[in-house]
Amino acid sequence: MTTAIPASPAGSGVAAPGLATSQRGGFGRFLVRRVLQALAVILVVSVIVFALLHALPGGPARGVLGQQATPEQVAAFEAANGLDQPVVLQYLSFLGRSLTGDLGESYLLNQSVADAIGLRLPKTLLLTGLSLVAAVIIAVPVGVYQAVRRNRAVDYWLSTLAIVAYSTPTFFLGMLLILLLSQGAGLFPAAAPQGNGVLEVLSQPAGLVLPVLTGAVPIVATFSRYMRSSTLDNLGEDYVRTARAKGTAYRDVVVRHVLRNSLTPVVAMLGYYLPVMFGGALVVEQLFNYPGMGLLFWSAAQSSDFPVLLGCVLVISVATVMGSLLADVVQALLDPRTRGGLR
Amino acid sequence: MTALRRFATNKLAVVGAVALAILVLFALLGPLVYPTEQVATDLGAANLPPGVDGHPLGTDALGYDNLGRLMVAGRVSLLVGVLAGALATVVGTLWGAVAGYVGGVVDAVMMRVVDAGIAIPAIFLLLVLSTIVRPTVGMMIVVLGMVSWLVPARLIRAEALSVRTRDYVVAARAMGATHRRTVLSHVIPNTVGTVVVNATFQVADAILLVAYISFLGMGIQPPTTDWGAMLNDGINYIYQGAWWLILPPGLAIVVVVCALNFVGDGLRDVVDVKGRTA
Amino acid sequence: MSEVVLRIRDLNVTFATDAGEVPAVRGIDLEVRRGRVVALVGESGSGKSVTSLSVLGLLPSTARITGSVALADGGTLRDVVTAAEDQLVDLRGRVASMVFQEPMTALNPTMTLGDQVAEAVMNHERVPRAVARERAVGLLRSVGIPDPESRARQYPHELSGGQRQRVVIAIALACEPRLIVADEPTTALDATVQAEILDLLRELVAERDTALLLVTHNMGVVADIADEVAVMSGGRIVEHGLVEQVLLDPAHEYTRTLLDAVPAAPPASAATRAPSLSRPVPTGSTGSTGSINDPEISTGSASGREVVLDLRGVSLDYRVQGRHVRAVESLDLTVRAGEMLGLVGESGSGKSTAGRACLGLLAPSEGEVLLLGASVARARGRARRRLLADVGVVFQDPGGSLDPRKVVGESIAEPLAIHGRDGRRLSATERRARVGELLDAVRLPAGAARRYPHEFSGGQRQRIGLARALALRPRLLVADEPTSALDVSVQAEVLQVLRDLHAELGFGCLFISHDLGVVHELTDRVAVLRSGRLVESGPTAEVFSAPREQYTAELLASVPTPDPGAQRERREARLRLVSGAASGAAR
């Protein structure tokens, strides 16, 4: 669950991804720009994945056929798949295949990559989604509370706790939870629910507790800090003073005025945090043996199942870009200064 | 107030700096004081609990002394973390500074590359890369550096963009200063604080990433080890209650990453120029 | 005498800082009576804003307060200092309310204007939301917001600064408080808007018999609206009395210095007369094109001397999200050696953009900017550098224009380091000597060279900026609002230094400012800009005493003067002008 966001929100500036949406130009313009930007990013991602494919030992042929393939098999594969053509053409055909959902065949699972991912992605989204919801429900009030009680002992301790939680590797945290709550107290099983569908997984809620909790803690640590910092910024704004001067009680000022304005930049940060969450999901799934995309990816890495590896990277990255796009659009919609262009 | 004194007013930062110093000394000088056998295995003395047979922290599944292993693993974790963090900082700073200062189309293209890099979760990319190249210590540093430079790039770009519009930079340009002079004499000195603070966080994140990769079994290969790999080895014995294989390396990671974050926060107070000019 | 609505007794406020306790207010006494307008004036750090915040108990928790601040609530006086937070919440808005300085940020950006006014109503009255909303619309109407029904559904960003300030005033009025505290309510506004807001406040206060405690630094505003005035300095009230007495016959030395430092407003005659026909108006005089506005027509003392800056039909654009927005439209200006040209206009008039173009920071999309006869936009490399060596610049923000990481000596020497002198590099000793001379010229000790910008006050930093600008003895100085961020007494000091150096060195100066008083005092010629177009230009004395254009006349009449009687005349003259224009437009 590391990187992609500096350890501290102030470092990156919570408002950083605001994208200057308050400029004139309106929401329509903003949306077009942002979608074009997302498409450009996906294009660059596809180039990176394509480059990785070619960086495989022995090139894409061995990557797909496996390292044990004979030179004859390799030659036949290359001819059949146009790998003797210029790189640009190869890239275009790779792009075309990816767009139609053809991500190749796993050579271990006896399944197409698209099917393998399609089966597991929903379960990963479920796990990540549950962690995220749990985390936000905790992080937002904690961050606001800290901001209101800024520089008091309780704020200090919660901040320190957040840094400790952030600094604890997800897998270590998971192990501790297994040791304490599963091995020690016997409250929850250490093995995640198994099964093919999302509903099957959901029907075993006890098994979901530890994975969801493990996934949620780092998100709480990060977002309580963002929320604190964003709320502090807003508490210092002039409109807070205006609201207090007209006799609005402090609690109402926080709830009616500050909360909404503080949430807006944090929503955008969610988009930026997605890659970190997917990274965290990989570790959680591996630790609890949860049958999601992370586990699929990990097993593929163990056995050098390259089509699966690269397919997963492509899908996860596109999901990330879409998530960020969605977060930015939601943020823009929350802000009347950008929404204005809709009318 | 001098920089040192301002740093010292942040108690957590001081605690962090001390903890960091102790851990570094522990890993670097520890084996000289407390030499142990870390190459040849001793299966006869496997999985001993702490205190038995003169092993203060017990032994692992291969009979290595756990305390000694913690020291040598720490060397690898710290070395990889510091160098990868430094590499990421250098690459990211240059990339971000150029994008931010040049602006326009160059900036747009450079930043889309950064966005794309960030969109690929670092752990996924690292796992793919480590199936392609054999993970040695040197390789780990390079690979980690190459996936971690994106955040500093974004940060420094924003900083360069903002410094570029400050009146003193505009004044320098109005005086006829060359781009070279403006960058060297104003932009870089005024972003260096951000770079240094971020480098601290970068090292912390790199140490975490190394641990993740090793924990996932795709890291540096035995007999070389690091804290993450120790945890990966230890997890198999978690159900037998071998807590001593888990807690020491896990806590070591937590302490060093925390310490770096605390120090980074303290440094930010020191370099915060805005606070001083007000 | 009418009843007391606010009584402050022996108020002391200190702030806990890292450097220990810092006193802000030291034992002041003040009474405000029903229906009276009391002005609290002083410079920054005088404690006037702290006093105003203490009235509603809005000081931050780091403040330590002793003494009493009592508000009249019904028949009783209730002490704010000892009141608990829930008692304060009950008092705020109902008994006393507040208007703040920054209308751009004073309203919640994500709540409709109607809801923000309605909230003020509902804070103190048990009324259904719909009723509160209706009341809000009525309040918006009463503060002069046109079409209040639809405005109530809009958000703050859809209104101009002046309109937003009206909304803040509507919020303050919502529960009909006996006292309104207004902290610099017009400081962030343009002069014409300031005059309108002051008119509104005056009417409302008279209509509703409300008291107004007005905090301001502007003596003209005091003269315009106040009945009484209390002068604060160093946390104390040094003088308190009726406005005529204090402004026209100040008893205290400090009040006198303060009044002396205020730049004389342009002559009152300008305000009393409508657009003048006393100056010859060439035919076809409405547009900004053609020769009528060519400043060279008017003969100043400097005419005939070398032209150092020449703008010919300059149009300037800036880009917002890929779209071009025109900031300045075919502007003609000249500045000759030894003369000062004032470029005046309200915010958004394009005056600063024009200044940037003169510095070669912005290439004109049409026309040409000629520095000493050569085009800056087209010069490259060495030629450009040589050209820029003859230009100095001073910016508005004294905090931002010096590199915080360089000692002052290094900043001042920067032009010397870039250009050398007489075509050669200077040795370290020569540079040090020159920095010493320059510091001396701006009346700072030589030791200042080794210190950092944050160790200096705003006025000192502006003088350092001036020293840097003059390091190479430039032939043109571009000064963009160099004193707008400063207190009047500090402004007077900086302007004096500028005037002396100008007399001594004889550079041409483009002085960009929104402050007509300063421009009147300082410049030889003036050019008035509005929405990117030149309205008129000519010798300052002529333009200011007999403006040719309606807009200039309005602008001039909006500047308040610190003489209550004269100000009343100006105000009436302005109202005649505005209403004349309105009826003219209606016809």
Automatic annotation (TrEMBL), chain A:
<comment type="similarity">
    <text>Belongs to the binding-protein-dependent transport system permease family.</text>
</comment>
<feature type="transmembrane region" description="Helical">
    <location>
        <begin position="35"/>
        <end position="56"/>
    </location>
</feature>
<feature type="transmembrane region" description="Helical">
    <location>
        <begin position="201"/>
        <end position="223"/>
    </location>
</feature>
<keyword id="KW-1133">Transmembrane helix</keyword>
<keyword id="KW-0813">Transport</keyword>
<feature type="transmembrane region" description="Helical">
    <location>
        <begin position="156"/>
        <end position="181"/>
    </location>
</feature>
<dbReference type="InterPro" id="IPR035906">
    <property type="entry name" value="MetI-like_sf"/>
</dbReference>
<protein>
    <submittedName>
        <fullName>Diguanylate cyclase</fullName>
    </submittedName>
</protein>
<dbReference type="GO" id="GO:0005886">
    <property type="term" value="C:plasma membrane"/>
</dbReference>
<dbReference type="InterPro" id="IPR000515">
    <property type="entry name" value="MetI-like"/>
</dbReference>
<dbReference type="Pfam" id="PF00528">
    <property type="entry name" value="BPD_transp_1"/>
</dbReference>
<keyword id="KW-0812">Transmembrane</keyword>
<dbReference type="InterPro" id="IPR045621">
    <property type="entry name" value="BPD_transp_1_N"/>
</dbReference>
<feature type="transmembrane region" description="Helical">
    <location>
        <begin position="266"/>
        <end position="288"/>
    </location>
</feature>
<keyword id="KW-1003">Cell membrane</keyword>
UniProtKB/TrEMBL annotation, chain B:
<dbReference type="Pfam" id="PF12911">
    <property type="entry name" value="OppC_N"/>
</dbReference>
<dbReference type="GO" id="GO:0055085">
    <property type="term" value="P:transmembrane transport"/>
</dbReference>
<keyword id="KW-0812">Transmembrane</keyword>
<feature type="transmembrane region" description="Helical">
    <location>
        <begin position="12"/>
        <end position="34"/>
    </location>
</feature>
<keyword id="KW-0472">Membrane</keyword>
<protein>
    <submittedName>
        <fullName>Peptide ABC transporter permease</fullName>
    </submittedName>
</protein>
<feature type="transmembrane region" description="Helical">
    <location>
        <begin position="241"/>
        <end position="264"/>
    </location>
</feature>
<keyword id="KW-0813">Transport</keyword>
<dbReference type="InterPro" id="IPR050366">
    <property type="entry name" value="BP-dependent_transpt_permease"/>
</dbReference>
<dbReference type="InterPro" id="IPR035906">
    <property type="entry name" value="MetI-like_sf"/>
</dbReference>
<dbReference type="GO" id="GO:0005886">
    <property type="term" value="C:plasma membrane"/>
</dbReference>
<dbReference type="Pfam" id="PF00528">
    <property type="entry name" value="BPD_transp_1"/>
</dbReference>
<feature type="transmembrane region" description="Helical">
    <location>
        <begin position="76"/>
        <end position="101"/>
    </location>
</feature>
<feature type="transmembrane region" description="Helical">
    <location>
        <begin position="203"/>
        <end position="221"/>
    </location>
</feature>
<keyword id="KW-1133">Transmembrane helix</keyword>
UniProtKB/TrEMBL annotation, chain C:
<feature type="region of interest" description="Disordered">
    <location>
        <begin position="269"/>
        <end position="299"/>
    </location>
</feature>
<dbReference type="Pfam" id="PF00005">
    <property type="entry name" value="ABC_tran"/>
</dbReference>
<keyword id="KW-0067">ATP-binding</keyword>
<dbReference type="InterPro" id="IPR013563">
    <property type="entry name" value="Oligopep_ABC_C"/>
</dbReference>
<feature type="domain" description="ABC transporter">
    <location>
        <begin position="311"/>
        <end position="556"/>
    </location>
</feature>
<protein>
    <submittedName>
        <fullName>Glutathione ABC transporter ATP-binding protein</fullName>
    </submittedName>
</protein>
<dbReference type="Pfam" id="PF08352">
    <property type="entry name" value="oligo_HPY"/>
</dbReference>
<dbReference type="GO" id="GO:0015833">
    <property type="term" value="P:peptide transport"/>
</dbReference>
<comment type="similarity">
    <text>Belongs to the ABC transporter superfamily.</text>
</comment>
<dbReference type="GO" id="GO:0005524">
    <property type="term" value="F:ATP binding"/>
</dbReference>
<feature type="domain" description="ABC transporter">
    <location>
        <begin position="8"/>
        <end position="259"/>
    </location>
</feature>
<keyword id="KW-1003">Cell membrane</keyword>
<keyword id="KW-0813">Transport</keyword>
<feature type="compositionally biased region" description="Polar residues">
    <location>
        <begin position="283"/>
        <end position="299"/>
    </location>
</feature>
<dbReference type="InterPro" id="IPR003439">
    <property type="entry name" value="ABC_transporter-like_ATP-bd"/>
</dbReference>
